[in-house]
Design brief:
By secondary structure, the protein is α/β, with parallel strands linked by helices. Helix 12 links the parallel strand 12 (283-285) and strand 13 (304-306). The model is unreliable at 34-40, 271-279 and 380-386 (pLDDT under 50). Strands 1, 2, 3, 6, 7, 8, 9, 10 and 11 form a nine-stranded mixed β-sheet that branches. It is built from 17 helices and 13 strands. The chain folds into two domains: 44-279, 2-enoyl-CoA Hydratase, Chain A, domain 1 (Alpha-Beta Complex); 314-409, no CATH class. Helix 2 (20-32) runs antiparallel to helix 3 (36-43), helix 5 runs parallel beside helix 6 (117-127) and helix 6 (117-127) packs parallel to helix 7 (144-150). The relative contact order is 0.07. 47% of the residues lie in helices and 13% in strands. The longest helix is centred in the middle third of the chain and has 26 residues, at 201-226. The protein is elongated and about 115 Å long.
Length: 411
């Protein structure tokens, strides 16, 4: 049996339990052996003064993995968890480094501790004007991890990615006294709500209120980050549920489907001007009410655009206007009687309605001593009974107008 002579041959003669992508990396490393520059191009080089950030063609890839805690400690080191403090340091270093032109948050986390998440999210949101910041979710991006991802200027997800769980959970355990022991707790009189009694409905209600207050902050910030009206977020995001891949995009949790490698290549291929032009998610509004709602949710006014007006069928409008004008002129001409040609011509020129013309003719007839009965007889084709004595002048005028316009309306 001939022994393998190169690292590539050694790797090729092994049996592997490994994903295809990882095996490709192993084989590439083995084939290039000592080619450090080629290896850095494939895997990325570590970014100075950071913990786990790598840079590939000017794109800093920042892992957001495992449970998220406020501070880095032995638990985060052992379990592969993430701390918001370390993330903030890594992100700032990438923003300050002139060789980095774009950032990708590589998110795969179920969430974590609430403390510190809003601060980190705000840092990311405010930094979007400095350099493009993308979030990529290939596996899980839930709860606190989604809060962080939503602050990026774009969220790209895999078909199988799991996003959402926008909500807050408060987990409290009561420790029972040991046998033979008893614990007493005295709370100052000014602070009866300092230690809610979970065995009572009022105590649980206090903690529910506290949890809901934090959840409202979560929803407010996600609405702003994603450019979605606040009142729509909860239902569109499944009331704390999870959405997968394309469904997450449809709900507005993410912007598009893609891969991490594709996203890095896309950012790496951008020109240097890309570092000063971030991808902006525009919010389109159609009405003043929608504009007000967008502003109230914290949407950046620079990202709000007014919807284009619907196409106007000018030919249809012109035809309808012509038809309406013809009907008006015909109606006025039908009111014409000998001696009233001047009033009729003026009504047509001035755009008066048929009813207004009828009133003008009635007044002109009165000025000339023509009574209501004569008008009614001329307009309806037959004499009518005289109005009751108690009729007012306004009623007589109305009858006169009706008599004149009857000729037009009745054909």
């Amino acid at each position: 049996m001939t022994l393998p002579r190169t690292a590539f041959e050694l790797a090729a003669n092994h049996t592997w339990l490994i994903t295809a992508e990882a095996l490709d990396t192993v084989m590439a490393v083995a084939a290039r052996e000592g080619d450090v520059q080629a290896l850095e191009a494939k895997l990325g080089r570590p970014l100075d003064n950071t913990r786990n950030v790598t840079v590939r063609d000017g794109v800093a890839v920042i892992p957001v993995t495992g449970p998220i805690f406020r501070h880095a400690n032995l638990m985060t080191e052992i379990s592969g968890a993430t701390s918001t403090g370390s993330l903030a340091t890594d992100i700032q270093e990438a923003l300050d480094n002139p060789s980095v032109k774009a950032l990708v948050l590589d998110v795969h986390s179920p969430g974590g501790e609430a403390t510190g998440i809003n601060e980190l999210s705000e840092m990311i949101f405010q930094a979007r004007d400095k350099k493009p910041i993308k979030a990529y979710v290939g596996g899980m991006g839930a709860s606190a991890a989604y809060w962080i991802a939503s602050a990026a200027d774009e969220v790209v997800v895999d078909d199988t990615a799991q996003l959402g769980s926008v909500g807050v959970v408060l987990n409290i355990r009561k420790r029972d006294d040991r046998a033979g022991e008893k614990t007493y707790e005295i709370v100052s009189s000014n602070a009866p709500n300092k230690r809610p009694d979970l065995d009572t409905e009022s105590g649980r209600a206090q903690l529910q209120t506290r949890t809901d207050e934090l959840a409202n902050v979560f929803l407010d910030k996600v609405a702003r980050n994603r450019g979605i009206p606040r009142e729509e977020v909860n239902n569109r995001f499944r009331q704390g549920g999870i959405a997968t891949g394309a469904l997450a995009v449809e709900a507005g949790m993410a912007d598009r489907l893609g891969s991490l490698e594709g996203l890095i290549a896309e950012l790496a291929g951008s020109t240097s001007s890309f570092s000063t032009q971030r991808s902006v998610k525009m919010t389109t509004v159609k009405t003043t009410a929608e504009l007000q709602a967008a502003i109230e949710t914290g949407t950046d006014p620079k990202t709000i655009q007014i919807a284009e007006p619907e196409a106007v069928d000018t030919d249809k409008i012109r035809a309808e206007a012509t038809q309406s004008e013809r009907a008006r002129c015909k109606g006025i001409m039908d009111l014409a009687s000998a001696g009233f040609e001047k009033e009729v011509a003026a009504a047509i020129d001035e755009g008066a309605s048929v009813e207004a013309t009828g009133l003008a003719l009635f007044k002109a007839a009165q000025d000339r001593g023509i009574n209501l009965q004569a008008i009614q007889s001329d307009g309806a084709g037959a004499p009518t009974a005289a109005p009751p004595k108690e009729d007012t002048e306004a009623a007589e005028r109305a009858q006169g107008v009706n008599a004149i316009t009857a000729r037009w309306k009745n054909g």
